[in-house]
């Protein structure tokens, strides 16, 4: 009943084939009803899983327990190692990890071992995020349709960020809002992921370096840049969840940048 | 490399994968407490073996260790269960997540659907469930899944196909004929 090409079709769906094979497989699926159905089923199952399954994060007590176990392992009390003079800009290993790794590493580092450096932008963003969570403050324009949200920003913010509904991937577009910081009307695109609200702020790049990923008051902040816009996703969702939305938006931004 | 350096590099490279390790352990283990123990043991082993880590695929390396820790914990439990008297604390072996009972407080359609899906995934054979979750939830490549599970890539592909077809079939069976509210 199943076509002999089913594994190649699955590999195509999973992004495991080169460009030439992909063309082959697409041609085959055009002619083969079995494989067309298979592709639809694969997409539906994936969307379903990513939408419904909770994206759990490790409980804080477990994280702490592991930290203590590792301290015991190196035979040094945590306080002693953390009390070393720490005014450094970028740890040496960040350079070796690539930007995504660096963002993650920086997040973990800020969370676990680096003294928190004051950065007013981080505080502004967290404040804007927390304010948005109050009743009636989340959105100025409510819509799951990017064709409604995106034009709205044209009249209400100084930037035109990427906007899309990623409901199949588990990130539902809720709406948009304008927030004032970095001396401009920044755009905030609001997504819902499970029980979490994610604000994605966008503003015109003005500073030399993006802030490093950070955690403030329990909210994670991830930064990236596409073209002349800087983005920050902020949420109490886990790092992996935030990172996945970042990746979706980066990909989309890169596609929109293409002429 | 001093111990402090090692600790810092470990924080930077391995700790970011704690959530993934926890989720994986959660699906492998029967209870949250078991998952906690497996993850902690895995991180200790990972730290001890960190100097020998080559290459950049830290996540696959870590999940391999989680899987091994789970396997040895599971063997120990089975040995204990074999000598335990009936009625002692071991739960019956079987699915990773017990089928959750009805919970009137969160009986929305969304929660229903999520529970059904969790139950169906829990009912998949272990060897199908793990490749499915590594692919769909952790977004790992075939090569990475092969590394974590110790399977040839061809086997990863066929198990993945069967897991997906199995889940889809059970889902249709479960929901067939029931009119579903539009969300
Ligand atoms: Zn076919």
Question: What would you note in describing this structure?
Answer:
- The complex is a heterodimer of chains A (259) and B (183).
- Helix content of chain A is 48%, strand content 19%.
- Chain A is of the alpha+beta class.
- Chain A has three domains: 6-52, no CATH class; 60-78 and 88-113, no CATH class; 120-257, MucB/RseB, C-terminal domain (Phosphorylase Kinase, domain 1).
- In chain A, helix 1 crosses helix 3 (33-52).
- Chain A is globular and about 60 Å long.
- The model of chain A is unreliable at 78-117 (pLDDT under 50).
- Chain B is an all-alpha fold and 183 residues long.
- Chain B has two domains: 1-86, Rna Polymerase Sigma Factor, Chain: A (Orthogonal Bundle), CATH 1.10.1740; 98-178, Orthogonal Bundle (Arc Repressor Mutant, subunit A).
- Chain B has eight helices and no strands.
- Chain B has helices at residues 3-13, 18-28, 32-49, 58-83, 109-123, 126-136, 142-149, 153-175.
- Residues 85-107 and 179-183 of chain B have low confidence and may be disordered.
- Chains A and B meet through helix 1, helix 3, helix 4, helix 7 and helix 10 of A and helix 1, helix 2, helix 3, helix 5 and helix 8 of B.
- Zinc ion binds at residues 3, 5, 28, 32, 34-35 of chain A.
- Zinc ion (ZN) binds at residues 3, 5, 28, 32, 34-35 of chain A.
């Amino acid at each position: 009943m199943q076509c002999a090409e089913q594994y190649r079709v699955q590999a195509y769906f999973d992004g495991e084939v080169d460009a030439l094979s992909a063309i082959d497989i697409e041609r085959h699926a055009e002619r083969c009803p079995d494989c067309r159905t298979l592709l639809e089923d694969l997409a539906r199952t994936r969307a379903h899983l990513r939408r419904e399954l909770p994206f759990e994060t490790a409980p804080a007590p477990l994280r702490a327990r592991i930290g203590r176990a590792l301290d015991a392992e190196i035979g040094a009390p945590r306080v002693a190692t953390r009390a070393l003079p720490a005014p450094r800009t970028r740890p040496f290993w960040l350079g070796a990890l690539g930007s995504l790794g660096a963002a993650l590493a920086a997040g973990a580092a800020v969370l676990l071992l680096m003294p928190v450096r004051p950065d007013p932008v981080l505080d502004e963003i967290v404040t804007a995020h927390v304010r948005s969570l109050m009743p009636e403050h989340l959105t100025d324009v409510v819509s799951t349709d990017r064709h409604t949200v995106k034009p709205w920003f044209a009249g209400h913010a100084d930037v035109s960020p990427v906007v899309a509904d990623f409901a199949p991937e588990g990130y539902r577009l809720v709406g948009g809002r304008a927030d004032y910081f970095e001396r401009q009307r920044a755009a905030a695109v609001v997504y819902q992921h499970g029980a979490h609200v994610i604000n994605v702020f966008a503003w015109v790049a003005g500073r030399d370096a993006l802030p490093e990923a950070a955690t403030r008051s329990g909210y994670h902040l991830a930064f990236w840049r596409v073209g002349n816009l800087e983005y920050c996703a902020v949420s109490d969702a886990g790092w992996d969840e935030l990172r996945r939305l970042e990746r979706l938006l980066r990909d989309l931004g890169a596609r929109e940048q293409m002429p | 490399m001093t111990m402090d350096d090692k600790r810092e590099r470990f924080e930077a490279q391995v700790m970011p994968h704690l959530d993934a390790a926890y989720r994986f352990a959660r699906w492998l283990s029967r209870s949250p407490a078991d998952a906690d123990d497996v993850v902690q043991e895995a991180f200790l082993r990972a730290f001890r073996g960190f100097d020998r880590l080559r290459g950049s695929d830290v996540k696959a390396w870590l999940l391999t260790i989680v899987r091994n820790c789970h396997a040895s914990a599971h063997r120990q439990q089975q040995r204990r269960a074999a000598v335990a008297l009936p009625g002692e604390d071991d739960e019956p072996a079987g699915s990773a997540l017990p089928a959750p009972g009805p919970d009137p407080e969160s009986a929305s359609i969304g929660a229903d659907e999520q529970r059904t899906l969790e139950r169906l995934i829990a009912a998949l054979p272990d060897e199908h469930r793990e490749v499915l979750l590594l692919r769909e939830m952790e977004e790992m490549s075939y090569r990475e899944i092969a590394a974590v599970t110790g399977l040839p890539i061809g086997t990863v592909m066929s198990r993945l196909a069967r897991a997906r077809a199995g889940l889809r079939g059970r889902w249709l069976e479960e929901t067939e004929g029931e009119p579903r509210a539009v969300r």
